[in-house]
Structure formats: structure tokens, C-alpha cells
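CO-FOLDING WORKSHEET

Operator: S.A.
Ligand of interest: NAP
Run index: 335
Mode: holo prediction, single chain
Checklist:
[x] sequence pasted
[x] SMILES validated
[ ] output reviewed
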Amino acid sequence: MAFKLSLTSFHNFSISIDCTQKKFLKNPNLILPSLNTFGFCSIKVSNSSKVTASIARGALPHAVKEEKAQTIQTQVAEINPSSSKLVLVVGGTGGVGQLVVASLLNRNIKSRLLLRDPQKAEFLFGKQDENALKVCKGDTRNPDDLNPVIFEGVTHVICCTGTTAFPSKRWDGDNTPERVDWEGIRNLVSALPATLTRLILVSSVGVTKYNELPWSIMNLFGVLKFKKMGEDFVRSSGLPFTIIRPGRLTDGPYTSYDLNTLLKATAGQRRAVLVGQGDKLVGEVSRLVVAEACIQALDIDFTQGQIYEINSIEGEGPGSDPKRWKELFKAAQIQ
Ligand SMILES: NC(=O)c1ccc[n+]([C@@H]2O[C@H](COP(=O)([O-])OP(=O)(O)OC[C@H]3O[C@@H](n4cnc5c(N)ncnc54)[C@H](OP(=O)(O)O)[C@@H]3O)[C@@H](O)[C@H]2O)c1
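OUTPUT RECEIVED:
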């Protein structure tokens, strides 16, 4: 059922960069355009120091589709009218994170956000009652920002932080994969209370084979290696965890939408979900599906201590039906 990842079929745009030049890493004008975290690129390595990247126009964030597909709003309306959970979302302004937050709000699940720029939360989610959504300022790279007060009362954590795989403006201030996906995760996990009920980490497919093509291309600046180091730290932390490894992300980020519009986002026809284990899937997945998987996994006991890979394809999906998600996660473990 796996999809073939095409890294060579896009021709819309290309640039060359010399990776040996120090200024390359410092100068934001020498960036690869950032379309999303992994900046979907077709890349040719012409020799050991030069990289040519072609950016896919087709990879531009999809518009929100409002056709007949179910909306998050209608999907979740009947679920969980109230909850004793307090979910800390780290990276809640990102593509997956914003959908997680919107969905938690819509489910009446209390949440807390750990963000570098709290203003972004107000822009995305509007003014919210602090009981429903409290925003804390912090950068996961700085252990001093991770004040225990932030974690007080938190029962669950969903971490969706990330940066671009290739140098981009989002690396400004040294916000590189090493700093975010490794050091940031290590700092966050070290700061979390031992009483936590679950930590969900959004990682990536390919992390166990970053030395193999095509993953080695994605890993040119270490993103997969550092994500794996982050995963390993989570696994050895003693905290109850679930790791979700998405394929290439589609749908969003909807960073120019407000909460109501965000809640109308749909995965269009691609609502069927593939869940596996073992880093075998190659394909893409809607951010809506990843966000839903994170939220569903919080309540499924047997997902604790497990790592799942996830893709989505055309067809009917589980929506927000807990029973169908349970079956999907269970089937992945049996395969
Ligand atoms: N794009 C893909 O195809 C792909 C494929 C597989 C896996 N993934 C992974 O899936 C996850 C979600 O991806 P996405 O595209 O939805 O993410 P995204 O839009 O890139 O969002 C990343 C989030 O991390 C936050 N962040 C970055 N650096 C931070 C720091 N130092 N301290 C605190 N927060 C920080 C960002 O906040 P700011 O607003 O402060 O920057 C943002 O909220 C990421 O881990 C990504 O690497 C992506």
C-alpha cells in the first residue's frame, strides 16, 4: 500500500547553493524557499559540496476545501463535551499544531500552549478564556524558558515542533534541526513532570534510514538524524510516550486563517488513513489526519510506548471516530 516518493518530478523552480560556504548558513537571503517544515524539494547533488533544489509548485499549501467532505467541526461535535485533561501543545502555531489546538478547543479540552511568540496564538485562535486555552511564552532551545509553572496540572503533551529540513529564514537565530528537533526535544522532555499521562511526539518517517536514498537527501542538514535522537531521548525518558511519524505533510499550514475557518478545513478526498509500524511507509499525509491521530492516541492505552508511521490516501477515513482509530492503531501493531 506504500506510495512512491518522487523527488525528481518537479521543475518549476530551481536554485543552486554551495554548502561549504559558512555564509550560506548565516545569510537568510541564500535560503531555500520554505514551503513547510520539510520544504518539499527535488534535489540533485552535483558533487559533494553543491546542491540543486527544485521546489514543487504543486507542493504549495493547499487551499482549505469546503466541499462535501466532513468538517472537523461536524466530526467532533458529538465527542467529549467536557474533559479532565489539560493538554500542553508545543508548536501549536505550526501546521499540525494549529489543527491540534483548534480541535482541542472544539472538543472542550483544556489546553495550554508553549510558544515563542504568544501573539501568534491570538491571531490564530482569537481571544480565549484562560481556562480553555492558556498561552505560555517559551523557546524549547532554552532550558530556562521551560519553567515548571508551565507544566503545572498538565496531564498530556502533544509536541509538534519543527523547522525546515534545509536552510531557510526559519533557521534565523540558529533555529536549526539540531537545535529544535534534538536539543529542544531533550530540554522539553527533561522539564516534563513524571506525573504526565502521555507525551505524543510528532516525528517523521525515514528517521531510521537517514543514510539511505532518498532519505539521505532529506537528511543533508541532519533533520532525520536529529529527529531520531529526539525520539530516542523520549523513549529512554521513562515517560509514557507515543511517537507519530508522518509522511510528507499536506493540507496547511493555514496560518492566515482564524479559528472558525480553521475548523472548516478538510482533507478533501484523501481521508483514508494508513497506519504502520517499522518505518516502512513512503507517501504523504494530511496534517488534519496527523492532528487527529495525536488527539486519538491520547485516549488509547495500548498506543503507549509505541511508534506509528502514518499516511493518508483517497477514500473514506476514520474521521474522529475513536473506535475506528483504535482499530487502525491495533491493526498496525499486529502487522
Ligand atoms: N513538512 C513535512 O513534510 C514533514 C514530514 C514529516 C514530518 N514533519 C514534522 O512534522 C511536525 C509538524 O510539521 P508542520 O509542518 O506542521 O510544522 P511547522 O508548521 O513547521 O510548525 C513548527 C512549529 O514548531 C515551532 N517551533 C519551531 N522552533 C521552535 C522553538 N525553538 N521553540 C518552540 N517552538 C518552536 C514553530 O513555532 P514558531 O512560530 O515560533 O516558529 C511552529 O509552531 C514537525 O516536527 C515536522 O518536522 C514534517
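REVIEW:
Residues 318 and 327 are 10 Å apart (CA to CA).
The chain has a mean pLDDT of 80.
[x] output reviewed
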